[in-house]
Amino acid sequence: EKIDPARVREFQRKYAVAETGRINLSTWLSLCVSCGDTSRKGTACDTRFEITDAHAETLVANHYKYVGRYLTGGDFKQIRAGELQTIFRHGLIPFFIFEEGYEKEYFTAAQGKNDARSASAAAGGFHAPADAAIFFAVDFDAMDGDVTTNVLPYFEAIHSSIGS
Predict the structure, then answer these.
(1) Is 93 helix (H, G, I), strand (E, B) or coil?
(2) Which string of b and e fits 123-132 if b means at least 16 CB within 10 Å?
(3) pTM for this structure?
(4) CA distance 105 to 82
């Protein structure tokens, strides 16, 4: 069957890949690899490392606008005291990530309710705006059945606890 260039362009637009209408390497990587095309330029990143003045300057020089930081995780990855001020001082916009579980069994409706409370409390502890977005991560290779039995109930519980 012939590949429809309009559908390829639609996919490329959705995933911020150069719209060529042709299936090129960047399109294949965006389709088949979870990290996509790592050589593709973006305006957002996330990191477990503290955003210092030097890091912020590098991000700004490379045209980044948004930086994601973890609400929990201890010294390994958690946002540090005063770091939000550094991010704002350099004109960057933060977004928050909550990630605790790495196994399918972790993701239950009960855990979703607990994580919603933990994430909200952590965000409040960093004086995040009340309407700040918190992205909840699922960091395991979920199969279709896992999404139905674990991931969706987890996110439904988060949504019922703290909203969109």
Answers:
(1) strand
(2) beebebeeee
(3) 0.78
(4) 35
19 contacts: CB under 8 Å, gap ≥ 6: 9, 12, 13
Alpha helices in 16-151 (DSSP H): 25-32, 53-61, 74-77, 83-89, 109-125, 144-146
Q: pLDDT (tens digit, 9 = 90+) per residue, 11-25? A: 999 888 889 999 999
Please enumerate in sequence order all residues whose Cβ is within 8 A of that of 133, keeping only pairs 6 or more positions apart, or say none: 95, 96
19 phi and psi angles, rounded to 5 deg? -80, 100
Whole-number pLDDT of residue 111: 97
Looking from the CA of 100 toward its CB, the CA atoms found within 13 Å total 17
> Please, are residues 78 and 72 in contact by the beta-carbon 8 Å criterion?
yes
Which residue, 64, 24, 27, is CA-closest to 46? 64
Which domains does the chain carry?
A: 1-40 (no CATH), 41-162 (3.20.20.80)
Mean pLDDT of the chain: 91
